[in-house]
Specification:
8 helices
Length: about 270
C-alpha cells in the first residue's frame, strides 16, 4: 500500500478573485483591492470592496436589481433538484442558496485551492458522494440581452466573453449555456458556447495568454511580499486601471484582518 501525500496549497481564495485577476490586463474601468494573510504556510486571499464598488451597490436601481434576479430565475428554469425531474419554476427563488465546490489546481508553480459557486451538474443519476462529484460534468448558465447592433456584439465579445472564459476555464467547464433575453426578461433563444472557442470569438479584444501571465506574475509578487506568518497582519494589494499594483503592509489586528480567530487557533 502506497501512502499518497497531498501538498498544502500556496494560496486559498474564491474563484471570483482569480477571475478578476485574469481579466485585469484588459480592464479599463474598475480597480480592485485584494487582502492577503499568511497562516500555516499558506497565503489566504480575500477580495475587498472598493469605494467605487460600494457606491455602485448603494446607488443600484430597482431595474438593475431586477436584471440580477432574472439570472437567478433563469437558473431555476434550467435546473432541477433531482435527475429526471422537471424544473419547478413556480417557487420563489432563494438567491442566497448556492452550491459551493472546492477545487485544487496549479498555475505554473502556484498550488491553488479555491471555492467556486456552481450552477449545477449535468447528470442522469443522483450524486451522493464527493468522489462522484469530482467526476461530475458541471454546467455554467448565463443570461444576456439579445444582440441587435454591432456595438452590442463588440461589447459582448469584449466584456462578457472574457469573464465567461475565466470563470469556466478555472473549473474545467467545457460549455456555457446562454439564454438571450429581451428587455422584459423573456428568454427567446438558448445558445451553447464552447469555452475553448471563446478566445477566438474575442481575438480582437483580449488574449488568454496575457490573462494567465498577469495572474501568474501577481501571485509570484504576493509570494515574494507576504512572507511573515501572522494571520492578524494583512497585506493590502490595490490596483487601478493604467496603474501598477501597490502593496501596503497593515500590522494587525486591524479592520482589514479577515481570518477568524477560531480558524487560526491551535
Amino acid at each position: 500500500m502506497q501512502l499518497v501525500t497531498v501538498q498544502s496549497p500556496h494560496f486559498v481564495c474564491f474563484r471570483g478573485l482569480l477571475t478578476m485577476l485574469l481579466c485585469t490586463p484588459f480592464e479599463q474601468q474598475e480597480g480592485w483591492i485584494i487582502l492577503a494573510s499568511k497562516h500555516g504556510g499558506t497565503i489566504f486571499l480575500c477580495a475587498k470592496e472598493t469605494e467605487e464598488k460600494h457606491q455602485q451597490r448603494e446607488l443600484m436601481t430597482d431595474r438593475q436589481r431586477q436584471f440580477m434576479s432574472w439570472g437567478y430565475k433563469f437558473e431555476q428554469y434550467m435546473t432541477s433538484d433531482k435527475p429526471g425531474r422537471e424544473p419547478d419554476s413556480s417557487q420563489p427563488v432563494n438567491e442566497r442558496e448556492e452550491l459551493c465546490v472546492m477545487f485544487r489546481t496549479k498555475l505554473n508553480s502556484h498550488r491553488l485551492l479555491f471555492g467556486a459557486e456552481m450552477d449545477g451538474v449535468n447528470s442522469k443519476t443522483a450524486i451522493n458522494s464527493c468522489a462522484e462529484l469530482a467526476q461530475a460534468e458541471f454546467i455554467e448558465l448565463k443570461t444576456s440581452r439579445q444582440i441587435e447592433t454591432r456595438r452590442q456584439d463588440d461589447n459582448f465579445r469584449r466584456f462578457k466573453l472574457i469573464k465567461w472564459w475565466g470563470q469556466s476555464f478555472l473549473v474545467g467547464i467545457k460549455e456555457v449555456i446562454c439564454g438571450f433575453r429581451d428587455d422584459r426578461g423573456i428568454v427567446h433563444r438558448l445558445e451553447p458556447f464552447e469555452v475553448s472557442k471563446l478566445p477566438k470569438m474575442a481575438v480582437n479584444f483580449w488574449n488568454p495568454n496575457v490573462c494567465m501571465n498577469f495572474c501568474d506574475h501577481f501571485l509570484s509578487f504576493v509570494k515574494s511580499v507576504v512572507v511573515e506568518e501572522d494571520w492578524q497582519t494583512v497585506w493590502k494589494f490595490e490596483w487601478k486601471p493604467h496603474e501598477d499594483v501597490i502593496a501596503t503592509k497593515i500590522v494587525g489586528p486591524s479592520e482589514f484582518t479577515f481570518l477568524p480567530a477560531w480558524f487560526t487557533s491551535p
